[in-house]
Amino acid sequence: MKIEVEVSQEVLAAVMDGKCVEGRLRLQLSSMETHQEIGFSPYNRKPKGSQDKVICLLENGWLKESPKRIKFYNSVKKGLDLMTIDHVMKRELKTAMRALLGDKLMELMLEEDDVEQ
């Protein structure tokens, strides 16, 4: 049994470069219906975007800035009592907010220096 697989030049070049190409195989009927071909379609995945800018690393988390969002993460052990968890999370949030304000002030100062020059 002879099986033919139709693959585009871009996919073949990527495979020859040693890259893994994810996609799907499908059965294609030829116009003469004397034989069948299997076609390969690669997934059109977008390349990963830019990495998030770390504004502040906290004791139990981090504060990051992406092109569209400000991200805050905080994790506390379950074994602590509720008052301690409340205190730790509020302290981390205050620290993150101070770092964010400082970062934004530095950006404004740099923009003003660029405008003056």
In short:
The chain is of the alpha+beta class. The protein has 2 helices and 6 strands.
Structure overview:
- The chain has about 120 residues and is an alpha+beta fold.
- About 35% of the residues lie in helices and about 25% in strands.
- It is built from 2 helices and 6 strands, in the order βαβββββα.
- The chain has helices at about 10-15, 80-115; strands spanning about 5, 25-30, 35-40, 55, 60-65, 70-75.
- Strands 1-3-2 form a 3-stranded mixed sheet, with no helix packed on it. It has a 3-stranded antiparallel sheet with strand order 4-5-6, with helices on one face.
- Strand 5 and strand 6 (about 70-75) form a beta hairpin.
- The longest helix is centred in the C-terminal third of the chain and has 35 residues, at about 80-115.
- The chain starts with a strand and ends with a helix.
- The model has no long low-confidence stretch (mean pLDDT about 85).
List descriptors.
single chain; 117 residues; 3-stranded mixed sheet; 3-stranded antiparallel sheet; 2 helices
Q: Layout of SSEs?
A:
Layout: E1 4-6, H1 9-16, E2 23-29, E3 36-42, E4 53-57, E5 61-65, E6 70-74, H2 82-116
Parallel strand pairs: 1-3
Antiparallel strand pairs: 2-3, 4-5, 5-6
The oligomeric status of these chains comes to single chain
Strand content: 25-35%
Rg calculated over all Cα atoms: 27 Å
> Order of helices and strands, N to C?
EHEEEEEH
First-last Cα distance: 74 Å
Average pLDDT reading: 86
Count of DSSP H/I helices: 2
Biggest sheet: strand arrangement: 1-3-2
Give the overall shape: elongated
Helix-residue proportion: 25-40%
Largest sheet: 3 strands, mixed
Q: What are the low-pLDDT stretches, counting only 5+ consecutive residues below 50?
A: none
Q: How many beta-strand segments? A: 6
Structural class: alpha+beta
